[in-house]
Amino acid sequence: MDLAFATIKELSAGLRKKQFSAVELAKFFLERIKKYDEKLRAFITLTEEEALRQAKEADEAILKGQAEILTGIPYAAKDLFSTRGIRTTAASKILENFQPVYDATVIAKLQEQKAVLLGKTNLDQFAHGSSTETSYFGPSHNPWDLSRIPGGSSGGSTAAVAAGLAPLALATETGGSIRQPASLCGLSGWKPTYGRVSRFGVIAMTSSTDSIGSVGRTVEDLVLTAEILAGFDPKDATTSRAEVKNWSKLLRSDLKGMTVGVPKEYFVSGMEADVEKRTKEAIEEVRHLGAEIKSVSLPLTAYGSMVYAIVTPSEISSNLSRYDGIRFGHVTTAAQDLFEIYSKTRGEGFGDEAKRRIMTGAYALSAGYRDAYYLKAQRVRRLLVNEFAEVFKKVDVLLCPSSPNVAIKIGGAADNPLFGYIADQLNIPAALAGLPALSIPCGFGKPADGEDVELPVGLQIIGPQWGEEKIFQVGYAYQQATDWHKRIPPGY
Questions:
Q1: What is the rounded distance in angstroms from the CA atom of residue 365 to the CA atom of residue 118?
Q2: Looking at residue 268, what is its pLDDT?
Q3: Per-residue pLDDT for 327 more than 90?
């Protein structure tokens, strides 16, 4: 077994059979992080001491016959998840040395399983971006080509798993921050239905769309993780009491009886040719697995990015108001009065992207503009929700690209004004509607910059609200029939 690229199921079986111990497994991945992360920059904080302590506890549980599926399994966590006594930065200077006094609910659930935390991964500052380039600690690099972005904002999580530095990583998504980097790094990524997983203890970006998910090697790994992470949390009023099924027992290798919709608006102008080709090939594979393919239309897709451009900065401006230099985090040393504590602390602590979003959001919520912008955007959002609901009366899931392009060069986003806009059209509508979605590998393509390199392409599977069972089924069946998810970057 190649431990670096083994699945959770394989590692769990190996631990139970005493092929290796949890401590040995933790040490193996910690050594890989030390060996490769200097060039990848996937991690902000390495939790070696904590990992070895947790691994020892996992070994004791296994010895007593008390092991769960994730007992002893190493994982990484995007540095938005509060971890008690462990630095949690949101990749921002303003929280550079912040240590929470409690754990996020999902971290606590993994601790109950006796999973092993290896470290906290890099991201765009406060998750504001799609490349990790806005991180205070510098960008992460794509394991398939170190000169390229891993995507974002969960780029550190996907880079770590893609390079075999961890078999699993927690991630967050607001408008594509799991699906897009999973696509660019050749991984499986799960964005749950909004409210399916608790947001308690996760540093907020946009409270009405933030979703907590994971990235891994296979859909089956994501399903096993989802069964643990999902569920009602009394600490988070937005979580649902919807049933968390034993999804892993419902998976099968065919798609007979399922109807799959292909939204024409998601094959947008400006999409790279190889991305479109690989996606359509994947759709044909789904047809061969027994599903009926039906063309559908979602005309309001074009308005998704416009709604997001108002709703997201508005909620960001509210959520970031707590970072004032008084309660926690960075505080300026150059202030002469209270006003300067506020203004200089925030000026020093926030990056340019955070400042832009704060100013945009404050304007959209200001007197005289709230009705014209924010409330109108929310009305259009409701129309998007209704449009998806009507389409899902006709089909079980939707298939489309996860990203319009393969990974671009670090620094390339600034030279490509369509980079973010086209990606937003593919990811934001489902996020605004609170829908569950997967991104899974479906092949490789050459970048538009002309370099002779093959990079991962992702297939996106979108389901109806609370429709995890359906997207997991389609993703699992596809991976049973293909081996794209087994490909690993060279040199690792």
A1: 40
A2: 83
A3: no
User: In the numeric block, which tokens belong to residue 180?
Assistant: 């897009």
> Which of 12, 82, 140, 153 is flagged as catalytic?
153
Q: Once rounded to an integer, what is the mean pLDDT over residues 163-180? A: 97
Could you give the CA distance from residue 56 to residue 26 in angstroms, rounded to a whole number?
A: 10
Residue whose token pair is 């086209």: 422
Measured in degrees and rounded to the nearest 5, phi and psi for residue 271 equal: -70, 140
Residue 208 in tokens: 């009405």
Tokens of 206: 């946009």
Buried b / exposed e across 429-460, counting CB within 10 Å, b at 16+? bbbbbbbbbbbbbbbbbbbbeeeebebbbbbb
Q: Full-prediction pTM beyond 0.85?
A: yes
Instruction: Catalytic residue, from 154, 157, 177, 183: name it.
Output: 177
Structure tokens at 125: 């500052």
Contact indicator for 105, 230 with CB cutoff of 8 Å: no
Question: How many residues would you count in the chain?
Answer: 492
How much is the mean pLDDT over the chain? 96
List 12, 21, 78, 92, catalytic entry = 78
Active site residue 177: yes
